[in-house]
User: Fold this.
Amino acid sequence: MKLPQSALLERASFDTLLDALRRRGFKVVGPVIQDEAIVYDTVTASADLPVGWTDEQDGGHYRLKRRKDEALFGYAVGPHSWKKYLHPANLKLWDATRDAGAALRFEEGDTEKPPKLAFLGVRSCELRAIAIQDKVFMGSAFTDEHYRKRRERIFTIAVNCGTAGGTCFCVSMKTGPKVTGDVAFDLALTELLEESGHYFLITAGSEAGAEILKELPTRPATPEDLATADAVVDRTAQNMGREMPAEGLPKVLLENLEHPRWDDVAERCLSCANCTMACPTCFCTTVEDTTDLTGDHAERWRRWDSCFTLDFTYMHGGSVQQSARSRYRQWMTHKLATWHEQFGSSGCVGCGRCITWCPVGIDLTEEAAAICTVENSNTATNISEPASRDPSP
Amino acid sequence: MSASLPNTMPGLPAAPLVPEPWQVAARREETADTFTLTLQPTGEAEPMRFQPGQFNMLYAFGTGESAISISGDPSEGSSGLIHTVRRVGYVTSALARLSPGDMVGVRGPFGSAWPMEDARGRDLIFMAGGIGLAPLRPAIYHALNHRADYGRIIILTGARTPEDALYLAEQETWREQDGVEGHLTVDRAETPWTHNVGVVTTLVPKACFDPANAVAMICGPEIMMRYSAMELRKSGLTDNRIYVTMERNMKCAVAFCGHCQLGPEFICKDGPVYRFDRIRFWFSQREF
Amino acid sequence: MKVTTLEPILREHPFFAGLPDTGLTLITGCAKNVRFEAGAALAREGDPAEHFYLIREGRVSLELPAPHGGTVKIQTIDAGEVVGWSWLMPPYQWQFDISAVTPVRALEMDGTCLRGKCDADPRLGYELMKRFSRVMVERLASTRLQLLDLYGVQHPASSPTS
Ligand SMILES: Cc1cc2nc3c(=O)[nH]c(=O)nc-3n(C[C@H](O)[C@H](O)[C@H](O)COP(=O)(O)OP(=O)(O)OC[C@H]3O[C@@H](n4cnc5c(N)ncnc54)[C@H](O)[C@@H]3O)c2cc1C
Ligand code: SF4
Ligand code: SF4
Assistant:
């Protein structure tokens, strides 16, 4: 596969990219401002993007702020993640009908062909999160066809991060901020806001991406342009809002299942499940069975669920995870420890959503560090205080 | 499109989340709260092939689904798909209202199996508590059908009272077979009862087996399995020769819904049958 | 007269396995061979507890009066096991009924006789105490498990770790 290396696209020509995608039948979805947050929704023109906005993020804190420039991607990630398109929050699994003769028939739900979606502005951590959900839904003996058929029809336009969010820690998770070749994408953009102008360095990551790139009114990128783009991501990497203790974390966590810190966090956690809803890798679901008034037609719906609910582990007689302590512990040890055994990587990509959207600001990097430092400072390395915040641009 | 999607395995149901309609062919009361359903496929559907220890998701129309182990004979040609169910809540109560001719939805079979291959040439110890005898019964059938493949067969079962003891008459016929040693115990007996009274772990010292060449398969509530494994260890069995079966809330049975996780294990896919040494760590954690 | 006939039987019984010859000889004098038909009573709650039984064949059960009449079997004891320790401690009274479930052959050990021997030979007394303690601890453990209602509605959160 011979891919053009990279090319430069002027900000003024940005919409040609959207046109090229639409010509191919893609509906473009990406960041837009709704209800004072940057969420993912339909994008028809670059003007729909949060032009000139950024987000201030911290534990339990999110606020939009104006930037001094007109950047299209000058913010970090918001409360939504792409999983809402690939792994819908509500999905009909099947219909069941009971005939007069008591015969039962099942009809699979969600059989329509999903729309071809172009994801615009996918961050490196988000590409990793998609790769993680690929493993969950398509990597074992069973394939979730609902996920697969959506996943197969997406086109990803990634963005190298030019701004680190206050709760980001992709560097310590080795998941960003630069989009690298070991994870699937179609096009990757770096937004360059130089004195010489506002433009994008575009790199193709797939054949389909390369074809689109060919159609755009680009000019060749010089080695200097590449160096400028690298400097943008390097600066982001140096301004991470948080840091996760890295080495040996799974082992430390599993050796400390009775650590007093779990009680401590349990006193703060509201079991509201926000963290799991916002997390781009959390995949758990429950089902709801319903019948209509005639009683002859039933449906089964699948909905996002959270390990923070008491019902999640219900078995006749009671829930296995009764205490908030055990539920937070379940979530964190799953994300950071047992996920490795299940899917070959951490279940956390360092996007910081769970920290920002936790109403009481519980910070899993801080919780992990506390469990590492209090008793086991010898088992984990690279433990440090959370790095100082990225001064807002 | 994004390149290189992971491959998927061929040969598995394309829609593992959609049940197939089966018909209740027979129903049998086992105890006051436990009954056995024999199901037949409808239309063109084939009989189900399964391995001892596997389970199905049974759907009671309009109510919901429950994970229920297959309790019938796994050999080819045996008639009907058999499940023994204890009525404890919504779904199992809805299943309890079914009678011959009614339909249920069935998805499966799912999960891991009892180690019938690895246990060849060894003494077999089956230990069951309460409804736990149902998931073990296919393994007992298999062992009795392939008598020459195994050494001694020991069946130790426990129930709360004689009235709660499962498959009582059938247990009698097992005990009568050559090379089968069976002990049955209840926690208390008010009616005439000549079997044991006491906890199921007390049956282990009564059984005659070669601890160096035996495999134990235990099924029952977690606490019963824990103490049974301890007792077997005392008599010389090592943890890699002890198998247990785990239970957790299950919604999908194909490792998508996340509910059945126990540490790194998806009980629906990696279990429900586990070698004890592989699950011991998680087995003894509280609230996991 | 020397009771030579019972000593080998005592030696064979698991409860006395490994007991030194001198000890065995001493306690043989307190042993008596007994048989019970199925349904017969070996002991009655409240009666003076003057002995204990080494079961050689058959099954006995410990019973209590049921709350609404009749009796509840709470434990069975088989060949190779021992039943009864009320003779060890005041007030030397049976706390349960003991009945033969099947025809039973047993050795009846005279408690008064044995207590005398143990007082005279504390080493023997200690040895016997150790053996009885073990049986008592095991019975207590399994009674506790019975209390847990092992096969009822159970979930792991409520189960003790050990
Ligand atoms: C692998 C496996 C094999 C099983 N085999 C058998 C069997 O052979 N016979 C049998 O009688 N029972 C078996 N069970 C237990 C059976 O699934 C539950 O008793 C049943 O789901 C209870 O549902 P309910 O709606 O009647 O109870 P409710 O208390 O009304 O439960 C509501 C929901 O909670 C969940 N739930 C409740 N109890 C359990 C439980 N013990 N395990 C998993 N989910 C639960 C289910 O999603 C259920 O729909 C098995 C469970 C598992 C996981
Ligand atoms: S656990 Fe938190 S930081 Fe990690 S991927 Fe999920 S939401 Fe992002
Ligand atoms: S950690 Fe925060 S977001 Fe997650 S459940 Fe607890 S309170 Fe809610």
Notes: Chain A touches chain B through 69 residues (CB under 8 Å). The longest strand of chain A covers residues 90-98. Residues 376-393 of chain A have pLDDT under 50 and may be disordered.
